[in-house]
Amino acid sequence: MTANSLSISQKDPDCVTSESRQLNVQTAQEEVYSFFVEIVKKLPPEDVLREFKGLFIDGLDSEDAEYIPGIYSIFLDDNEQDFSTTLKRCCYIIVNNWKTNRKDKYVQELVNIFINENLKIKSNNPPVVKICKNWIENFVNSKDYKDLKLFAIKYEESAKGHWANRYTSYLLIDQSVNDKNPREQQEAC
Predict the structure, then answer these.
(1) I need a labelling partner for 91 at 20 to 30 A (CA). Which of 49, 78, 145, 152 fits?
(2) Where are the domains of the chain?
(3) Full-prediction pTM beyond 0.85?
(4) How far apart are CA 176 and CA 96, in angstroms?
């Protein structure tokens, strides 16, 4: 390996450049994506949901000020957008596989994971946990989450019979042709 391709600064060997930090994020994202591609094919939906919840949700109710919940440690350098993109793509990896294998009813359970009292920001939460919960809250309030919910609407009891459900397929078509959406989302639509 040449000195020009090293991502560590020559002046301070402990200083990691933003380029290497971005590479670490990309490597971590690819590992997470591969993990979900693998488990969604091998494990029953209940176990996939448990793994998803364990990675993205569990730990956000910690009161330990030193604790950084799992995957969030990768993104805590103000990388909310990278986190949101990772979360969205993981959701669509799962949704796409379940739709293909006619396990549609579990999509609703995936969507419902984000509707959880433990995800509400509390005054006694440590600052890092507040940041993580805020990222989840921002995701839940985003267009990305609303798009994800379109896949689950058919199984949502409160929406059954609502006139707007007839237009869900048109909304999904829009997502399928949008080049800004990840490949998994386009395929799921």
Answers:
(1) 78
(2) 16-188
(3) no
(4) 12
